[in-house]
Write a structure and sequence with these properties.
The complex is a heterodimer of chains A (about 230) and B (about 500). With about 230 residues, chain A is an all-alpha fold. Chain A has eight helices and no strands. Chain B is mainly α. Classes of the chains: A mainly alpha (about 230), B mainly alpha (about 500).
Chain lengths: ~230, ~500
């Protein structure tokens, strides 16, 4: 009985999903909004990377929400873990020489690459979230390979986290006050297309997001590590 | 005053998020000022939303984010519905923040205030946005902060409730996202007005199934039967100030999103409403009957919220102007009444040290004010004059009778039976509070001033709205016509 009902419900669901999928214009330039992005994205936002022009230009408000979600996830994790009792998980294995040496060689390169990714978000694939994640991966490597755990500086990471988010918001609010009076309005000049200093506020926001995401993801790992100690 | 009236409604979302991000920096400087941040933030929101509200009654304000015209960019629709709910969220948020000043004194208080700010800014975002994916983003902010706050006290039941809530909420969010994806794939737009314009008939399977997915996903947050399994645990194990916000605001925001999808985007007509009415009646009965058997005060209040959500859904599903404005009115009176109940119960639990109803014997003498506020909340939720709950329930009954259909009159009878059950279990608590002598000789003291101020303002609002329901009726009828007339909505957004 139960199984029968679930199978019938699933079939109805499947029928609807198939019907919806068959309505979708795959491979055709029928979609008005997406067409507008590819045709006018360059003029509207000044970003050479169309994905970035959507993420921070047309739908920048969603990105503000996503940044908030990550911030929230970090805070929420800290709340939940801070209430649990600390329990040891056995002795920590000392990292090998290869890991330790590799870390010392790679760490600056990882940071450099992460910085490159978030600074060039408006020109090439990548952006603040991706660059931040690359930077955080450098810190994971640090935790794994340094014999005596160096903890993140709480003061610095909090500062990066908050200031990064606040820069995003303040830029939005400046847009509200200047010129055309729209929140998140691109009030800086677009500059010369496809150069580092172009696309107005987009690179500024991406740098802020890069710092924020990098410090937030590192902090999540730091909090989890504290739990396992 | 004019300056405030002309402020952009996007500030209602941006300012609390900004303050939440500012809290960690302030926390590094001084831990004492942190708790004032939510108070300041929601005071600002209350002032702005109440000042802008009269302006949007004539013409909704369409806020184009970053200046891109809809459907290419994201836009906010500060219409009567959105601003009414935003004002409700802001005012309740302000008063609960005042209550929290002294109530929250243990645990990671700084993080509590961040999560509280973000929970309510997410709720404000959901009610104001005009873009379905943006609604999803703010819905996630609302849900994730609720999960964390349910686990705030860190006891076993709190963690268990939070995990249950997290799993069910995550399934709900995924269903919502799948529904949005299927609609986007077909119509190539995420703007709600543009979607509404493109959807010609909701009964085609290619629209109906995404709609069902979205309604189910949002229905989990709204705690519509049979999607309400997480609610009693979650609402009873959070700190009382958070239970108040979850019961009074979060589930109503979920219900608002359901209504927005059903009325505005899909423009449902006919038999689907009969289905919704049936679900609503079952939700009322299940909620009220489960509440009847509870011995734990917070679980009882949580189950009562399920019953109230059923009543609100019932009113909306009548799909008439009376019905929808009755539903919005019931949202208002439920928020005020239920928040008041949770806040007063919070201090009764704190002073007696137990959540069992039987331990409240003699509280009426020892904490006269708190007991009085609790009683006012009770009477309003049951729907006795002259409190707010009476006017809203009366409007709903009137709407059901105006339908003129025997089916609706019968269903209304069942809903009224639910109200009778509600009356029984609430009066039982009031009886314990006032008419049972306590054996316990210790003298519990009353709540601190911040708690008293916050609760008394809620009580005054409940009485004032009950005495002068006509004052807000204009807002409600304008809001109802926004929901019922989706052509008007499309025209105002897309021009």
């Amino acid at each position: 009985m139960k199984k029968g009902v679930s199978i019938i419900l699933l079939l109805i669901l499947l029928w609807g999903v198939v019907a919806a999928l068959s309505e979708m214009p795959f491979g055709k330039a029928k979609l008005e909004v997406a067409g507008h992005y590819t045709d006018y994205g360059k003029e509207d936002t000044g970003a050479a990377n169309i994905v970035t022009s959507v993420v921070l230009g047309y739908r920048g408000f969603d990105t503000l929400g996503e940044v908030t979600v990550l911030f929230l996830a970090c805070i929420g994790l800290a709340v939940v873990l801070s209430t649990l009792k600390k329990q040891g998980c056995g002795a920590r294995q000392t990292p090998s020489l290869i890991l330790n040496t590799g870390f010392r060689f790679l760490f600056p390169l990882i940071l450099l690459f992460g910085t490159y990714v978030f600074m060039h978000g408006h020109l090439s694939p990548g952006g603040g979230f991706q660059g931040g994640a690359v930077i955080a991966s450098g810190f994971v490597l640090m935790y794994l390979s340094v014999p005596k755990i160096k903890r993140l500086n709480h003061f610095v990471s909090t500062l990066f986290e908050s200031v990064g988010g606040l820069i995003f918001l303040v830029i939005g609010l400046i847009g509200l006050k200047l010129g055309s009076q729209y929140f998140l309005n691109n009030f800086l000049p677009n500059g010369e297309f496809n150069t580092l200093l172009s696309a107005g506020i987009i690179p500024v926001i991406y740098i802020a997001i890069g710092f924020k995401v990098g410090s937030e993801l590192s902090k999540i790992i730091d909090v989890l590590l504290e739990e396992s100690e | 005053m004019n300056e405030i009236m002309n402020l952009n409604p996007v500030l209602l979302i941006a300012v609390p998020i900004g303050l939440a991000m500012l809290v960690p920096i302030l926390g590094l400087m001084s831990s004492k000022i942190v708790k004032w941040v939510p108070v300041v933030g929601f005071l600002f929101n209350s002032v702005v939303s109440l000042a802008v509200l009269p302006r949007v009654l004539n013409q909704p304000i369409i806020v184009k984010i970053a200046g891109f015209a809809p459907p290419f960019g994201i836009n906010l629709v500060a219409g009567p519905v959105g601003m009414f709910l935003a004002a409700l969220i802001a005012v309740s948020g302000f008063l609960v923040a005042v209550y929290s000043l002294d109530y929250i004194h243990e645990g990671a208080a700084e993080k509590y205030h961040i999560l509280f700010l973000l929970l309510l800014s997410g709720a404000t975002g959901v009610v104001l946005t005009g873009d379905i994916f943006n609604l999803f983003v703010f819905f996630e902010i609302l849900c994730i902060s609720s999960y964390a706050l349910v686990a705030y006290l860190g006891n076993r039941s709190g963690i268990e409730a939070a995990v249950k809530y997290l799993i069910q909420g995550a399934i709900g969010s995924s269903l919502l996202l799948i529904g949005i994806g299927l609609l986007y794939g077909q119509f190539g737009t995420l703007n709600m007005a543009d979607l509404a314009q493109n959807i010609t008939s909701f009964s085609e399977p290619s629209v109906f199934v995404p709609m069902i997915l979205m309604v189910t996903g949002l229905g989990i947050e709204a705690a519509i039967f049979p999607l309400n399994a997480w609610l009693p645990d979650a609402h009873s194990s959070a700190p009382s100030s958070i239970s108040a916000v979850l019961s009074g605001i979060a589930i109503e925001v979920g219900l608002y999103a359901v209504i927005r999808v059903v009325f505005t985007i899909c423009h449902v007509t006919g038999s689907f409403f009969v289905f919704l009415v049936a679900i609503a009646v079952v939700t009322v009965l299940i909620g009220e009957m489960s509440a009847f058997g509870q011995k734990n005060i917070k679980r009882m209040l949580a189950y009562s919220s399920i019953g109230q959500i059923g009543l609100i859904l019932f009113a909306f599903s009548l799909a008439t102007e009376f019905g929808v404005s009755g539903g919005l009115f019931q949202m208002l009176s439920h928020t005020l009444g239920k928040v008041l109940l949770f806040l007063s119960a919070g201090y009764m639990i704190y002073r007696t040290g137990s959540m069992e109803i039987s331990s409240f014997e003699g509280v009426g003498k020892k904490m006269p004010w708190t007991a009085l506020f609790f009683t006012i909340g009770t009477l309003s939720i049951i729907g006795l004059p002259p409190f707010a709950g009476f006017s809203s329930k009366f409007l709903i009954i009137k709407a059901a009778l105006a339908k003129g259909d025997l089916l609706y009159i019968l269903l209304m009878g069942i809903v009224l039976l639910g109200t009778v059950i509600e009356g029984t279990y609430f009066f039982r608590v009031v009886q314990v509070i006032y008419f049972k002598e306590s054996n316990n000789k210790t003298e519990p003291e009353g709540p601190p001033v911040s708690g008293l101020i916050s609760m008394s303002v809620f009580a005054i609002l409940v009485v004032l709205i009950g005495l002068f329901p006509n004052a807000i009726l204009k807002i409600l009828t304008t809001a109802a016509s926004e929901l019922l007339n989706n052509l008007e909505y499309i025209r105002s957004v897309l021009g």
